[in-house]
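Review form for a predicted model. The reviewer records the input and the model, then writes brief findings.
Reviewer: anonymous (R2)
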Amino acid sequence: MPINKGGTASLSSFKGREAFYIEGGIIMTEVAVLGATGYTGFELVRLLDGHPQAEAVFLSSESHAGLKISDIHPQLHERTDLTLNKMRIKDIPKTVELVFCALPHGQSAEVVSALLENGVRVVDLSADYRLKQAALYKEWYGLDHPYPSLLEESVYGLPELNKEQIATAQLAANPGCYPTSIILALAPLLNAKMVSAGSLIIDSKSGVSGAGRTPKQPFHFPECTENFKAYRVASHQHTPEIEQELGRLAGQDMKVTFTPHLVPMIRGILSTIYLEPAALKTEAEYIDLLSSFYAECKFVRVLDTPVLPETRLVRGSNYCDLALKLDQRTGRLIIISAIDNLIKGAAGQALQNMNIMLGLDEDSGLGQVPY
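Model under review:
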C-alpha cells in the first residue's frame, strides 16, 4: 500500500485480525521485525526465538537483504535462519499480526503509518511517536513530523504505567532507554506528589551499544576504552520525552537537569537521581512507597539497602532494579536505577508490549536470569 504523506492515516483502520497458526498444539502469532540486524533488532530476533507463542516470520535489512540473519549474527545459526528482505510493506506476509519497527529515528514515521493503514499493530522502537507535540519533535530531532495526527493516538509503551492503554493500542511507542530508567525510578514519588518541582537532577551512564551498530568515530574502541565522558550536556534528545512523561505523572510541567555519560562497557544504564522531597518521611517509608507501587509489576525490583543496583545484576534481562537512600545531612533523596539498555531499554520492553497487546502473559519469553 502506498504511504499517505498527507497525514491522514488513522489508527481506526486496524482490522482486529487474528493471524496465527498452531504448532504442536500451541497458538503461534506471526510477527515481523524491521531493521533486524542492528543491536536492538538482533535482540528482538533472539528473544522471539525463545518465545512460546510468537514467531518472527519476516525480517528486514536494507544493507544485508538476501543474506540469512544467521550470516550476520552467527549466534542464530540453526536457530533462526530466516532470509533478510528489503523493507517493502507489500512483502510482509498477510498473516503477520504485529510488526516491530526497529528503524532509525526519522525513517520510522512513514513506515508505521503505512503499516497501520494495512491494519497491522505496531511496536515502534524509534522516537518518532513518543512525543505528543510535533513542535517538540522538530525542536529536538530537527525534522517535521509527517503524521502529527498519529502522535496523540499512539500509546507510550511503558507497561508498568500504561498497561491498560497498551492492551488496546494499535501503535505502542516504545520508550527510550534513558527515559525508561528514569521514569520508573520517579513514578511512585511523582504519583504521590512527593517531589518538589524543579529539584530533579539526573545523572545517567550508558554502555556504548546505546549508540547503535553503525560505526561512528566517538564510539570507536580507541576513543571509548579507558575513557569516561559526558555528552550532549543540556541538549540530549531524550530530555523532552523524560519531561513529558514526568509531567504527566506529576500533573504539571516538569523541567529536569539531565546529563548522560558514556561508559566503556557494552551494555547497561545506571541512573542516579537527586531530588528534594515535598514531604518529610523516613527512608523506610519512601522505600515502602516504591515497593507497594510496583508490587504487581514483574520486572521492577526494589532492592533493600545496602544492596544497590548494578548494571551487571540486570544484564541480559528485562529487569529494572531500583534503590533509594535518604541523605539525612542534606535532606535529599537519592534514587538509583539500573537496566540493560538493549533489553528493558529496548527489545525486552518491546516484547513486553507485544505480549500485552496480544493478550499473552506479560512475561512470556522474558524469563531470562541476569548474567
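Findings: The chain is about 25% helix and 20% strand.
Further findings: Residues 62 and 86 are 5 Å apart (CA to CA).
Recommendation: see findings above.
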